[in-house]
Design goal:
26% of the residues lie in helices and 8% in strands. The protein is of the alpha/beta class and 211 residues long. It has one domain. Strands 1-2-3-4 form a four-stranded mixed beta sheet, with no helix packed on it. Helix 4 (88-98) runs parallel beside helix 5 (127-138). The protein is globular.
Length: 211
């Protein structure tokens, strides 16, 4: 749905679809050996594949990320384009793809894989039905994807009542103090806790972000 795909397509052309973020990359060269010793790298990628051509590039992208020996990876949403079918096979293909990462791979849902599915060119699905399928398949277990996994804590689905409706606030997924924000210099805990989604300083699994 978003025009970010053009940005990623351009990056794909030069074979660098991931953004490798050195957690202490912004730290000055101050001679702090402890800081360097605890430094780690994460990979951020998303908005793909949107075409057969991009599908063909994914093995090389994943191989590059694996070779970089990142601490973990985060896919920031949109496992398909906003104008392609929302079939079950799209989700199963993504699960298989995410499972080939050597380090933990955390998936954050995008709009293309559920809210856009009502469109005719997406198959005319019920968006909430696709959301339910997404939760059942992509968040079947409380752990990340990847050969090595990271235990996660899922936020329950948001609920409303007819007599007392509640207004939902925009929710942003971000690291918690236990998972270590990217501005910190220590390796994330193996079991993130505190699944709040509205507090920018907290990490949680993205299951509730699609709610």
């Amino acid at each position: 749905m978003m025009d970010r795909r053009h940005k990623w397509a351009a990056v794909a052309a030069v074979g660098a679809l991931s953004v490798l973020v050195g957690v202490v990359g912004a730290v000055a060269d101050d001679g702090d050996d402890d800081v360097r010793q605890n430094a780690f790298t994460v990979a951020l990628w998303g908005d793909m594949p949107y075409s057969a051509a991009e599908i063909s590039k994914l093995p090389a992208l994943i191989a590059d990320i694996n070779a970089a020996k990142v601490a973990f990876s985060v896919f920031d949403g949109d496992i398909k384009s906003g104008s392609s079918l929302c079939t079950d096979s799209v989700f199963t293909a993504a699960i298989q793809r995410f499972g080939t990462f050597r380090s933990p791979m955390v998936y954050v849902p995008g709009d293309n894989e559920w809210t856009d599915c009502h469109r005719i060119n997406n198959g005319g699905y019920n968006a909430l039905s696709r959301l339910s399928f997404l939760r059942e398949t992509m968040f079947a277990e409380e752990q990340s994807f990847g050969e090595k996994t990271l235990l996660l804590e899922h936020q329950p689905a948001a609920t409303t009542t007819r007599s007392a409706p509640t207004a939902s606030q925009p929710r942003a997924c971000a690291p918690s103090s236990t998972a270590t924000p990217t501005t910190s210099n220590t390796r994330p805990a193996t079991r993130p806790t505190s699944p709040g989604c509205t507090t920018p300083s907290r990490w949680r699994s993205p299951a509730g972000c699609a709610g």
